[in-house]
Specification:
The chain is an alpha/beta fold. It has one domain: Response regulator (Rossmann fold, 3-Layer(aba) Sandwich), CATH 3.40.50.2300. The protein is built from five helices and six strands. It starts with 14 loop residues before the first strand and ends in a 19-residue tail after the last helix.
């Protein structure tokens, strides 16, 4: 696959499709990004690579989707309306949802991640990123998660987090 930067034709439609390519098993990935070009291209790349992908346009829509269905991975932009990627992580960890998260951003929010170390995403991707970087990061995160599951290790449940008053948004 050609190493190109994420971008593409605009689309405001939510994406929900199953891929038929080479990723085994077909992991379910939720993509949350307010940029329709990045959202569309990211989902398309995942689908063409054999993943099942759903895409939403903001953090609030991602939170609703996470509560309505199950996913193997969340890829979320940091800077979004409604809920930022960090706010979405706070809600996710506060609900003790054991889900790997790839945080995508032009600049990694180091101060927030230092202030709330229990929010640490599984991986980060800096924009602009290539298709190769996206797929490599997704494969690495899912391989680590699947490997831990196969070895009988449980995914973290985020039980070691600070008291609930630190979870308010």
């Amino acid at each position: 696959m050609k190493d190109t930067n994420i971008g593409g034709a605009p689309s405001d439609k939510p994406i929900s499709a199953a891929g038929g390519g080479g990723a085994q098993p077909r992991h379910r990935v939720l993509v949350a990004d307010d940029d329709s070009c990045i959202r569309q291209l990211t989902a398309d790349v995942l689908i063409q690579s054999g993943y099942q992908a759903w895409a939403v346009s903001d953090g609030a829509a991602a939170w609703r989707a996470l509560n309505e269905d199950s996913y193997d991975l969340l890829i979320t932009d940091y800077n979004m309306p409604e809920l930022t990627g960090i706010e979405l992580l706070r809600k996710l960890r506060g609900a003790r949802m054991a889900l790997p998260v790839i945080l995508v951003s032009g600049v990694v929010p180091k101060e927030e991640l230092i202030r709330y170390p229990w929010l640490k995403p599984t991986a980060t991707l800096l924009k602009p990123y290539s298709v190769v970087e996206l797929l490599g990061t997704v494969q690495e995160v899912l391989r680590a998660t699947t490997s831990a599951d196969l070895q009988g290790e449980s995914r973290p449940t985020w039980r070691d987090q600070p008291p609930s008053e630190n979870l308010s948004l």
